[in-house]
Every structure is written in structure tokens, then in C-alpha cells.
Give the backbone structure.
Amino acid sequence: MSELDFIPNFKQRIPQKNSSKDWLDFEEPQIIFSQGMRGGGKSVLINRTAERLYNEGFLILHIWSARSLENIYWAINKNCRTHYTKLKIIVDAFYDKTFQGNLRQRCASKGLFGDEYEKYNQISIQSNLIESSSNNTYQITDLGKQLHKRELLHCNCSKAFPIMLAVPDYVEFDQESIDKFNGAYHVTFFE
């Protein structure tokens, strides 16, 4: 993975918590219907549900598949939790009043320094969490403030879930979908 392969993807946390009761019941059968526009968070709901059920000892079979094979994508660990934790160190440094110094020094006091700091600082700028001002100083943006307040939803994967996929021999996957899924997707232009 090269330095800037990780691209953060945030969703607003709306609507807020509507109930104090847990939304997932492990004792009674239930149906969870997920509907919405592309990019609306359906996969987040399905992935969170599957993770909680798996952790309770249920066998997970996610049969429906979009054309991008996203039903088996959640079984792959891209270790997003680590990346978002480091981005949170950067935005939280703007609110750390116990340590005086610049952003780099504040982040170093929380364990983010050297090349790793440079990498996540660039990701923070490119993702509009912070913006660069004059004299190598930085300002936190509104999106950065939302991340600091934990108002944004994002992938929090830190482990992969083993799955078994049995596919009849009459189902054919096109190579482009498989390459996208495996992260080995390259575009070549010919003249």
C-alpha cells in the first residue's frame, strides 16, 4: 500500500439515536430491511449487523451480491481502524490544551511522529480535515471538527471474518470485478 492509497470516507451521523433499546435482538428472529440510494449507508448497516451476529456465534451467509461483489468485501480487513485512529490524533491535537507546541509536537506526544505523521498529515489535508495556513501552521476545518466530536461514521474494520462461498459452476465472474475486489485493478489506455 503506497502512502496515499488510504482515502477516508465519512458519512453524517443522522438520524441520532432514537431508542435506548438495542436494535439487534439475539434471542428472537427478526428481519432487517436495508434500502437506500447508492452511497447511503446500506452496506454499513449490513456489515455492522453481520459483525455483531458473528461475534455472538451465528453463521453468516451473505447471499445477495451487487455487481461489485460487496457482499463478500466485508470479509477483507483493510485495517481502517488504525488509519482513522491516526487521523483522530491529528484533529484532536487542535483541542489538546495540556501540551503547548505546534501540531507536529502535539501529535508526537500522542505517538504519531516521523514519516507516519507526514503521511497522515497529508491525508488530513487532502481529505479536508485540516487546511494549511501560512508559516507551516494548520487550521481545523468543519469536517475535522465533526471528526473530533465523533459525529462522522466511517469504516472501523480491524479484523477479517472467514467465509465460505459456494458458487455454482454456471455463475461466471468477470475478471474486472475480481480485480477490483482483490485491489489489483489497473487501467491501461491504448492508442
